[in-house]
Amino acid sequence: MTQTTRGTDALLETLYAGIIEAHATIRPAVAVTPLAYSERFSAATGCQVYLKCEHQQHTGSFKYRGAYNKLRLLSREDRARGVVAATSGNHGQAVALAARLAQVSATVYTSAGTSPYKLEAMRALGATVVTVPGESLEAELEAVRQAALQGRPYISPYNDMDVIAGQGTVGVEIHEQQPQVDAVFAAIGGGGLVSGIGTVLSRLNPNAQIIGCWPEQSAAMYHSLKAGHIYPVPQGDTLASGSAGNIYPGAITFDLCQRLLSRSVLVTEEEIRWAMKAVAVDEHWIIEGAAGVSLAGALKVARTMPGKRLVVVLCGRNVDWPVFLKAVS
């Protein structure tokens, strides 16, 4: 057994314990979201398709789980200093709400390309928003720098055990709602959500496949995993802006994704667009592009898994209205 393997094993042990503790503690502040059986997608694929409705979570995405869990675990002294976060949108909204409920000040660093809708939502929840030139990784690096300079806790969107533990409660709920699931499909940006889900199911349902899904235009973790190390990847325009961007150097999610992912799927912008439209037409739900990525990934490979129970994590709904209308028109 290599040192890296031993280190990842220890990380998984600690993370699993954190997820189980979070699952038992964060209610009722964090909602248990439905696992909805989809007649439409089941008939279309020949599988049993369930939709995990994280777009119905507080602030419209799974990110609230991690933000709330991190805030509740901070010491009184850390809370008094206020928190710093970096975001492409959803994590910032989640931190803003969790901080407001905890009566903690929050400053959120965002990239220049962050949706104006998401910026306004963060401000409405009481956060101070600072826009940084460049893409999401630049916002992360600046947020980490400022947190260190100011002596304030930094809340990463994914590179934090407490955040991942909160996000991993999605996996516990999936197991409780459908113990016999064969595969879970999740969009991957920084890898926090899939790391949490994979950690849980590797213990509770080790036969379940954990399938990571990316837009072809922005697949930093995908290419880094292929290369065997994190490195900057050119980013294209994508509807899945919530999962876009490069990975923080040394992120713990890299080793976790290496260990936990069973399969990887890349999807096109047209496939994302079709998935968003299909959910709107058949389920009457608005989802954002990152949620469309996981469904598009499932639809792309489902025919190779006939009769299997598939869970698709619809990770969020926070999409600008003009972007959504253009996507589904």
TrEMBL record:
Cofactors: pyridoxal 5'-phosphate
Signal peptide: none
Coiled coil region boundaries: none
CDD domains, alphabetized: Thr-dehyd (cd01562)
Chain ranges passing through the membrane: none
Top-level taxon: Bacteria
Residue ranges annotated for the Tryptophan synthase beta chain-like PALP domain, each copy included: 26-316
Pfam families: PALP
Gene3D superfamilies cross-referenced by the UniProt entry: 3.40.50.1100
Record's keyword terms, sorted: Lyase, Pyridoxal phosphate
NCBIfam families listed in its UniProt record: PRK06815.1
Protein name: Threonine/serine dehydratase
Source species of the chain: Pseudomonas quercus
